[in-house]
Amino acid sequence: MSAQASARIYAGGGHFALKNGTKYRGGLFRKPLDGAFGESQWEWLTKGLPENVEARVIVLHPTRRGVIYVGTQDGPYRSSDGGDSWERLGFPDRGAVVWAMAFHPAKPDVMYLGTAPVKLYRSTDGGDNWHRLPAAVSPEHCKMDFPTRTIGIAADPGRDGEVYAALEVSGVLRSSDGGDSWSDLSAPLIRLAGQPHLKSRIGSDSDAEGMLDSHAIAVSSAASGEPFLAVRMGLFRGTARGTDWQDVEVGRYSPLTYCRDVKVSPHDARVMYACLSTSSRGNAGSLYRSDDVGASWKRFDHDVTAHATMMSSCVNPHDAAQVCCVSRCGEVFATADTGATWKASQLPRDVQDVYAVACG
Question: Which strands form 8-13's sheet, in the order they lie side by side?
């Protein structure tokens, strides 16, 4: 069976309530990426998962097809049959709300996980067992009305032991020893917020809030030591292992600059994808692609109209032509021909706070 015929898309979200009392459910959903993608129904995955599961991060095993991990409100779960059934892994903390998971790009048995409030964990056996990394502590630069989240994790494929953790809303941490010790890389982000166009405060008393509002982090083997950070104020590139940060100035290429996600293609280290929108709960979003390690960007999701913030993107680890993205209100967009054509599918209408998408 071809990669295209067998590919499936997974999407997940959290529960959400409006001030008027309207409530929306979360959940984890699946459907084939095939010719009927736009018309077929989404399957709600529940077997073995916590009741009323919230799925804010989904990762596929980089080499073992059908092995999928999801972060829930009760730690990480894994499926070995493409999502038909799930098991809770050997995770030490019950009730831990998972917001980030990542594989080490060169060591598929090594995984990292982050929660809210901020705690980081490491597995060295493919997720079977997890151990907390006690030195990973949020610097709490910016007090919000929600706990600081570990929103993104990335290991540098070119520097053994180098791991970055993006915190919402508190900047970036870096470990140089695989997670045993951590340093705070947020000071240069705070300095950048001294520039008028990079000041932003919504829920705190700090003008640096927007620069500390991390959403995702990625490192390419084509630019080792230079992490890319998605924040409220745009997309930034770290230099000297994140000890300084430079504005990519993605606004040169896109009218939308609020950056929610940045990823490196697993097939080509020079190819990157970024989700750009108007705001956290905006009414528009888009997916951009770079073919030169972030030096320039082009709109990738042509002929797509998203009606909410574009939250996440993914590339099928088995097929570089298959790329997907998802908006906050549950619109899933997919291409199977490297962006030449796109199909759209809406998650159930009562799912309105979508964070994650994966394809494989």
Answer: 43-44, 27-32, 8-13, 354-359
- The CATH code for residues 3-359 is 2.130.10.10
CA–CA gap between residue 56 and residue 71 (Å, rounded): 6
The pair of three-digit structure tokens given for residue 258, joined into one six-digit string: 């609020």
- Cα–Cα distance measured from residue 236 to residue 250, given in angstroms and rounded to the nearest whole number: 9
State the Cα–Cα distance between residues 167 and 359, nearest whole angstrom: 25
Burial (Cβ within 10 Å: 0-12, 13-18, ≥19) of residue 224? middle
Average pLDDT over residues 148-158: 97
**pLDDT for 100-142, tens place per residue?**
999 999 999 999 999 999 999 999 999 999 999 999 999 999 9
pLDDT, the chain, mean: 95
Distance, CA of 84 to CA of 37 (rounded, Å) = 19
Query: What CA–CA distance (Å, rounded) separates 149 from 167?
Result: 6
Residue 3's pLDDT is 43
Q: Structure tokens of 254?
A: 């896109």
> What is the rounded distance in angstroms from the CA atom of residue 113 to the CA atom of residue 130?
9
Domain ranges within the chain, ordered by starting residue: 3-359
- For the chain, what is the radius of gyration of the CA atoms? 19
